[in-house]
Structures are given as C-alpha cells and as structure tokens.
Amino acid sequence: MLAPMPGGVLAQDTAPAAGAASTPGQPQAQAVRIGFLRTYERTLALSVLDIPPEDIGLAGANLAIADNNTTGSFMGQNFELEVVTLAPGDDVAEPARQMLADGIQYIVTDLSADDTLTVADLAGETDTLVFNAGALDDRLRGEACRANMLHTAPSRAMLTDGIAQYLMWKQWRNWALIEGEHEGDQLFAEAMKKSATKFGGTIVGEKIFEDAGGARATDSGQALVQRQIPVFLQDLPDHDVLLVADESEVFGTYVPWRNWVPRPVAGTAGLTAGSWHPASEQWGGAQIQNRFEDMAERRMQSKDMQVWTAIRVIGEAASRTQSTDPAAIAEFIKGDDFAIAAFKGQRLTFRDWDWQLRQPILLGTEDSVVSASPQEGFLHQVSELDTLGVDEPETECSFAN
C-alpha cells in the first residue's frame, strides 16, 4: 500500500514481506524493523537522462529487504521496511523521532549532511544505528563523525582518490580544474585538489564557472553553449586532463567534446566515479543487475547499491549472529569478523576509525565501466582499499564528539 508523504512523493507503509507469516505449529518470526528516511524532489539536470528516478535508493531498499527475507525465512527472522520520503528542506527531526518511538531498530538515510547528522544525534539517544547511504561529505567521516553512524555511501575523498589513482596510473599527471560556485561543487573541487597532492598530480590551472542561469531547453541553447564553453576554457595552461567539479549540474555535462584543446574530461563529467555503475556485471554483478531490473524496470545506480548494501549489512549480521537483538547485531557489525559481499570482487568491511565501508570505486562513462580503483601498484599496509579516502593516521574523527 502507498501513502502520500510531504512533497507529494509516495512512500511505502510498513508491511511484512510476502510469505513471512508463521504457519500453525511454527514459532512467530522475529521482526527486524528498518526505517528508510529519504528526500526526493524531481529536479532538472543538464541532460534529461540524468534526472534521478523517483524510486532512486528506494528500489535498492526493496530488493535488499527481499534478499534479507530469503535468508531470514530459514532463520525465523522477518525484515520489515518503513519508508518516509520528504521534500528537500522539510523537517527531518519529527519523522525520525516517530520512527524511533514506533520501535524502528535501524535507520538508513538518503539525506543531506546536516539532516543525516540530525537523525544520527536523535538515534544516538537510544543507541540506534544509522546507516548513511546518501551523503558524501567528508566531514561526516571526520570532525562530525558519530559512533552510531556508519557509511555505505563513499566519501567525496574516496571518489576523487579513485579518479586520481587512475589518472596517475595512466601517467596523465597535469590537470586543469574547472569548478562551479555552489557548495557541493566547491567540496568536490577541494577533495580533488587533496587527491592531487596525495598521489602526485599537479593542478596547473583552475577556473570557477559562474552560475548565471541558462537556456538549456531553448532552440538556441545548444549553439550558445557550443560557442561559450571553448572560449571559457581557452586560457587554461597546457594540461593532460580537464577536471570538472559540478555536482550542482550547471555546466559539467556541456564540457566533454567542447574543450578548447582536445583533452579527456574527468570528475563529475566525462569519466566519473561511483560506488556502482549501471553497466557493471563483473564479480557476479549481472546477477544483482538482473534481479534489480526485474523488480525496478531499470538498471541499478550507485545510490540504489548504497541503500541495498546498508540493509544487507543488517541482514548479514542478523544471519551470522542468529539473533535479532540490536545490541548483538551492532557489536558484530563493528567487530573484526564482519564482512559483506557486494558484487565488487572482494568482501567489504568497516573502518573502525570512522565507520566508513571500505569499497572499490568504479570509474566509468555513461555507457560503460572503464576501470576500478584502487589501481594496481597503490599499496597499503592494512588494505589497498584504505588508499581511497582518509586513512587512520589522518582522520579527524573522534567518537567522543
């Protein structure tokens, strides 16, 4: 059953999975109740192909619940999902409090960084785990980290490190950077500059693209962009790669094939980084892609994978501990023996210094996967996955916050 939520978006009511009810002579299945708190608003993108689908993330949640209940049916465990969808800017505190008051045992979020922190702090009052499956902000893994907040979404630093490693592996060492003026653009640009320093790349030039509005849908818009973008880029120093930092979707999609000089483009346009890619089929990925496509009637995107992984983490821990006790499950997830399989070629674990999930970063174009980082030759004394993002010696996270 669907119920209208603020912002005019539909969200699912809580309902047991099909086949979860006990039969006469069988004990009642133990419920594991998971909340998914998200924001969604249909927003314009430079390409209509890039507008996020209405069920972005939610489709991953539904598949994960079904997967959890496949195993849970043998374990006497029943996984239930309650979804609340808000419009950006809506108050997130009240629905979070309501979830906690209703006995939700875990909350998965796809929210802004500030809203994610609000939910984590409210949940911390009852030692409830929050899984950040949406916010990329490095501060959530740094100075604003929380002991009850785990991250299945990669950080921006992980994404930009993944790109930087590939460019250095290709020996394309000199980079020009063009960035937008909005907050997300600036945060991505800052992460990209830190990745350059970390791996030996050189930012030879940098420009800010001012958001003066646009006419993307007008008859003359394409011709205007074709003239403007090359002129804007023509005074950059010589470079191997043009980096784009445009999370706000103002100009980035326009840059490839409109450079002043012929150079590859990477960042938020051209070669992009993510936790997943719709074309990924390696390491058994075809299996989850097929199941996801059967359920959602589209291919799986990064946010779907991040939400799927968060809910599967809970299911894996419940199965391995043979328990539905939140304290036992939390202890196991944070322990040395926990790992989750996520169709990325290796089992993934959480970093105990900031509770970020270690994971490969997939690099791709709109049509295909080009590579996966960490790249060959980037070594680490604990895990090569720890070459992506902030390592323990550099972390600003203190769980005493």
- What is the rounded Rg? 22 Å
Helix/sheet category: alpha/beta
Q: What is the topology, as strand order, of the major beta sheet?
A: 9-8-10-11-12-15-16
Overall average pLDDT? 91
Strand content: 15-25%
Strand segment tally:
16
- Report the helical percentage: 25-40%
**Ends apart, CA distance between termini:** 40 Å
- Gross morphology is globular
Spans of 5+ residues with little confidence (pLDDT < 50)?
Answer: 1-23, 215-221
Main sheet: strands, sense, barrel:
7 strands, mixed
Helix and strand pattern: EEEHEHEHEEHEHEHEEEHHHEEEE
Q: Determine the number of helices (DSSP H or I, runs of at least 4 residues).
A: 9
Describe this structure in words.
It is a single chain. This protein is an alpha/beta fold. Helix content is 31%, strand content 19%. It is built from nine helices and 16 strands. The strands form four sheets. The protein has a seven-stranded mixed sheet, with helices on one face. The protein has a five-stranded parallel sheet with strand order 4-3-5-6-7, with helices on both faces. A hairpin with a 4-residue loop joins strand 15 and strand 16. Helix 2 runs parallel beside helix 3 and helix 4 (156-169) packs across helix 5. The longest helix has 20 residues, at 302-321. The chain is globular. It starts with a strand and ends in a 28-residue tail after the last strand.
